[in-house]
Amino acid sequence: MTTDTPRLRLGIIADPQYADLDPNPVADRHFRRSLDKLRAAVDHFNSQDLDAVVVLGDLIDRGWENFGPVLEILDGLKAPRILLPGNHDFLVEPDRLTDIHAAFGMPAPYYELELKGVRLVVTDGSEISLFAPPEGDERRAEAERCLTELKEKGAPNAYDWNAGISDRQMTWIAERLTDAEANGADVILLGHYPVYPPSDHTLWDAEELAARIAGSSSALAYLCGHHHVGNYAVLNGVHFVNFCGMVDTEQENAFAVLSVFDDRIEIAGHGREPNRRLALGATKQRASSLS
């Protein structure tokens, strides 16, 4: 049985990447303009009945001092906010690296919460990287090894502005999906880095993680940012949505409202973000009816 009343509504922002910097005309990134774009998004979100607002990473381009203006605007949201860091959020003073997750109000670098019967799995795509772990952390050495191996293979995503996740986190994600399946729960996963389809912006572990997500009867979607042009693909009935970067272009904004129904996901895009209507397969519809 379907209904036109959404089960869950989320505001979505990706890559505001604010900084008190002049524009980068080559990349068409207008860092200071992100504050006005954020205000416009917050005003729209506050006119909607939302369960939460999600920012999918890269709140800033660099510099700890730039978090203040962004967080102050987000303080004006009526709905609860869910923030997760992207690669640029770690381009801060070395002694501030361990403060990022707390500044974002995160209980842990990766965790699960439930909203309106839908489980949201927040992933930590920067766990193994050359920028997020503090100097001397073994995860930096692991990132160097991983990046070297990817370059030797000629992998398209072999760049130091991408990152990977640990075996421990991969196992945790698999366990959360298995538990959701056992309990008839629906899952939406949140991350900064795309995992499908393959591109030069995907997570280093993208193929394995995409396969795990697509292999779960409980997974509805994986939402991300990082690749500012945006992207979309479906794999085994799971929707992989890469939202457009807000920082790009001088005038056009980019944000969305995502609504989960029993039989579909609807994305109402604003500015550069397109509208989407994403059908949910029969198995996922059955799971949603049990929750």
Which SSEs are present, and which pair or pack?
Layout: E1 8-13, H1 34-46, E2 52-55, H2 67-74, E3 81-83, H3 100-103, E4 111-115, E5 118-122, H4 138-153, H5 167-182, E6 186-190, H6 206-214, E7 219-224, E8 231-235, E9 238-242, E10 254-260, E11 264-271, E12 276-279, H7 282-290
Parallel strand pairs: 1-2, 2-3, 5-6, 6-7, 7-9
Antiparallel strand pairs: 1-10, 4-5, 8-9, 10-11, 11-12
Helix pairs in contact: 1-2
Task: Sum up the structure in keywords.
single chain; 291 residues; alpha/beta; Purple Acid Phosphatase, chain A, domain 2; 6-stranded mixed β-sheet; 7 helices; globular; disordered C terminus
Summarize the structure.
This protein is α/β, with parallel strands linked by helices and 291 residues long.
Give an overview of the whole structure.
- This protein is α/β, with parallel strands linked by helices.
- It has a single domain, classed as Metallo-dependent phosphatases (Purple Acid Phosphatase, chain A, domain 2), CATH 3.60.21.
- 26% of the residues lie in helices and 22% in strands.
- A six-stranded mixed sheet has the order 3-2-1-10-11-12, covered by helices on one side. A six-stranded mixed sheet has the order 4-5-6-7-9-8.
- Strand 4 and strand 5 form a beta hairpin.
- Helix 1 runs parallel beside helix 2 (67-74).
- The longest helix is centred in the middle third of the chain and has 16 residues, at 138-153.
- The protein is globular and about 50 Å long.
- It starts with 7 loop residues before the first strand and ends with a helix.
- Mean pLDDT is 95; it is low at 286-291.
